[in-house]
Amino acid sequence: MSRGKQKINLDIFLMIKILNSTSNNFKKDLEYFLNLRKYYSDSTINTVRKIVSDVRKKGDTSLLKYEKRFNGLKKINRKNLYFSNSEISKNIKKLDPNVKKAINLAFDRIFKFHKRQKFYGFNIKDKYQNTFAYRSNPIKKVGVYVPGGKASYPSSVLMNCIPALIAGVKEIFMTVPASKNNINPGVLYAAKKCKIKKIYKVGGAQGIAAFAYGTDTVTKVEKIVGPGNEYVALAKKEVSGQVGIDMFAGPSEVTIIADKNSNPNWVAADLIAQAEHDEMAQSILVTDNKKLIPEVMKCLNIQLKFLPKRKIVLNSFRKFGLAIIARNPKNISEVINEISPEHLEIYTKKPEKYLKSINNTGSFFLGGYSPEAIGDYLAGPNHVLPTSGTAKFSSGLSVHDFLKRQSIIKISKTGIERLGPSVITLSKYENLQGHANSIKIRIKQR
Q1: pLDDT tens per residue, range 68-89
Q2: Rounded-to-integer distance, Cα 312 and Cα 308, Å
Q3: Cβ 121 vs Cβ 152: under 8 Å
Q4: How many Cβ atoms are within 10 Å of 166's Cβ, its own excluded?
Q5: Which of 67, 114, 276, 343 does the annotation list as catalytic?
Q6: Which residues of the chain have pLDDT under 50?
């Protein structure tokens, strides 16, 4: 082996940190590496707050100012702040027919899977003839943020818009940065398939603020969904509560469970696939087989040689890459539940056995033929998933995110007479005499 190759191997080993679960400092070290991506600088937070405040106060004036500054749209004005039908058609004509075909296939598969999620409600009646119902109604207006530039993906359009379509959202708006008037035709084609009402040429925190508060040009929506960079994520957090958001999403991540039966070449390929998203992505390997780690490292070196986004992957590995040596399958499950990864690939001989012991993950990918990449595009389930450990308490995007659920209560005369005394007792116990009286006054009238 040449010195050059030896140096590359050494670099990879230094880049991807190796932790051992038997170490006394393991939990502390793991927590440190998992928290690295959760913090934002004060200057970034303050910048986002200023942008959001400006757009809220000055509307289109501020929106146009920031688009000219950040996205190089020097000639943008209120009239061309969104795509015209002719612009959309012109761009779609440039799209490769094979890409169209792939988008069509993805649309159909995602639609069929999410259609099963629709909530139909129920009605019940008790022995006192009281009736209770639980129903759902769609949100009326939804804004979908789609990243632009290097990370402009038609798959983001499909994953965010199809659940809204199925839920019955009447008006879906979209915004996508059109940096220097460049636009991904695949994004526009996917948007057309999803029946988007209007597509704005707006990005960043200003795009989120425009959806949250509305401007003369941009329609105010009731919920904002879709991925973005740290400015977009922080802007969504800033407006949350004044408008609904899907989740406070961080950079993408994958954790892979592998054993002696796993193909190291496939494991390496999937670690790379996640890391090439951006330098903030995190790829983690967890195994109880020490020999697998150097084998995976060798495969990483070979695969990275000619990768177009090699620099991004290397920076991602250097900052956040981990390989964890666990004691046994039980310990592996404990580690995974602590990591709570967005994507969990299980490349073991019997991957299903982990389903009972692992609860904290956005999505499972079972077996060697289930790379996370297929989930990104057209497996069917949604790829908008909780990140940065939030899978401990949240779920991926679904039809339910676009539905408001409401309970309906109708109490009969007999019902209030039979149930009322217990309500009075509890009201008095909680020192809420007004509550008790609102029941008493009805029972006395019998």
Answers
A1: 888 777 778 888 899 999 999 9
A2: 9
A3: no
A4: 21
A5: 343
A6: 1-10, 14, 446
Q: What is the DSSP string of 214-278?
A: --SSSPP-SEEE----HHHHHHHHHHBTTBEES----S-EEEEEE-TTS-HHHHHHHHHHHHTS-
Task: Give the per-residue pLDDT at 7.
Answer: 44
Catalytic residue at 342? yes
Catalytic residue (choose from 342, 345, 372, 383):
342
At residue 336, what is the residue type? I
Query: Phi-psi bin for 241: left (phi > 0), alpha (psi -120 to 50), beta?
Result: left
Q: Look at residue 149 in the predicted model and tell me its pLDDT.
A: 63
Positive or negative, the CA dihedral 139, 165, 281, 42 is negative
Instruction: Give the side-chain half-sphere CA count within 13 A for 186.
Output: 21
pTM: 0.91
Separation in Å, CA 104 to CA 108, 111, 154, 239: 6, 11, 11, 34
- Portion of the chain with pLDDT greater than 70, in percent: 95
Best CA proximity match to 50, nearest among 72, 66, 74? 66
Structure token pair of residue 17? 């940190």
Q: In the block, which residue shows the tokens 């190796």?
A: 18
Question: Per the structure block, which two tokens stand in for 12?
Answer: 């990879």
Helices (H), 345-401: 372-377
The one-character DSSP state at 82 is: B
Q: What's the token pair of residue 221?
A: 């929506």
* pLDDT tens-digit map of 196-240: 999 999 999 999 999 999 999 999 999 999 998 899 999 999 999
Among this protein's residues, is 67 annotated catalytic?
no
The whole-chain average pLDDT of the chain stands at: 93
Quick one: pLDDT at residue 249?
A: 82
